[in-house]
Amino acid sequence: MPAGFPALPSLNALRMFEVASRHLNFRLAAEELGVTQAAVAQQIRGLEASLQVRLFERLPRGLGLTDAGRAYSTSVRGALAIIDEATQLLRPQPLQLTVSVTPTFASKWLIPRLGHFADAHPDIDLRLLATDRLSHFHTDAVDLAVRYGTLPFGAGLNVELLMQPHVVAVASPGLLGEKGRPDSFEALQRFVALHDAHDYWPAFSAAMFPGHPPATARNVRFNQTSLAIEAAVAGQGITLASRAFVEADLAAGRLEQVFSLQWRLDKAFYLVWPRKAQAGDALQVVRDWLRQQAANS
Predict the structure, then answer these.
(1) Which residues form the HTH lysR-type domain (predicted)?
(2) Domains of the chain, with CATH numbers?
(3) What is the SS3 assignment for 219?
């Protein structure tokens, strides 16, 4: 069998022919390839000259494939697909890791940090599953979860403390300027209490103003902490949230801490993953990165 492929046209010319045969338009082919229309036309003329076969019909309104060109385009497209598949097999596949978090944890803490992770670890394809329901590792194909609660979480799971939250009361500077900063239990009743699903207000009020009856302030309730935070930013009232979730809003001046009290809970955020984890090195990298981010927050 003769060595090499002496009659094979240049791969660049074949690539341009394949694109041009799909678009039947040299301008559109040039746009896809990122070259000039003249460069495409030149490569096609050279290919036809080397093959001594006309591949395109030059029509008044664009191009058409000749019978030879139509058959050749099918063969060339198949050959390029084989080359592409072989090339992809040579490249290392990205490590995939799915992390389950709550929507508030994702939007208020994790997403603002993800750009740094992607820059530092381009080989890891990190996928977020943001849901309020408890994800199952096997059925939802979850490798790692951030769960809020108290130990234990169940058999067959590894657990590491990620972050101990401190709950603070926050409101917009405009609202505090309008109504005055509440320095007493009675003054607090002038404000709307913005609740989330955790319903921190009764216990927080008791810790802030011991001996007083339950607050009778107006209430608005949300099923997600992030919504209560956005309502506070909009000047709708005072909300209670983990300081980690409002740190950026406090730093930007969108929110102010109403009281000095930072209320520590008996619950915390934990990293949880199956003891028989399959993700290997990627799981370790993501866990280390999350712990580092938590320590710096």
Answers:
(1) 9-66
(2) 11-90 (1.10.10.10), 95-164+267-296 (3.40.190.10), 166-264 (3.40.190.10)
(3) strand
